[in-house]
């Protein structure tokens, strides 16, 4: 019984967050993905040159 005390409900995933906060998080995630793709491309080019 106590195991379910702090358990999330299935409806918690349906709750909407503030649009501004969600938009900012999406923008940061996309920027990070772009940087990772650039770094990966550079690593592939360096590996191909070696």
What does the model show?
- There is one protein chain.
- This protein has 50 residues and is an all-alpha fold.
- It starts with 18 loop residues before the first helix and ends with a helix.
- It has one helix and no strands.
- Helix content is 62%, strand content 0%.
- This is 26S proteasome non-ATPase regulatory subunit 14 homolog.
- Keywords: Hydrolase, Metal-binding, Metalloprotease, Protease, Proteasome, Zinc.
- Residues 13-47 form the 26S proteasome regulatory subunit RPN11 C-terminal domain.
- One of its GO terms (biological process) is proteolysis.
- GO terms for molecular function: metal ion binding; metallopeptidase activity.
Structural class: mainly alpha
Distance between the termini: 60 Å
Radius of gyration: 20 Å
Low-pLDDT segments:
none
Number of strands: 0
**Average residue-wise pLDDT:** 90
Main beta sheet: none
Content of β-strand: under 5%
Estimate the global geometry from the Cα principal axes.
Answer: elongated
**What is the count of helical runs?**
1
Amount of helix? 55-70%
Order of helices and strands: H
């Amino acid at each position: 019984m106590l195991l379910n005390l702090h358990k999330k409900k299935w409806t918690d995933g349906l709750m909407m967050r503030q649009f501004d906060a969600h938009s900012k998080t999406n923008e940061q995630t996309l920027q990070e993905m772009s940087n990772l793709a650039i770094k990966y491309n550079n690593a592939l080019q360096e590996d191909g040159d070696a």
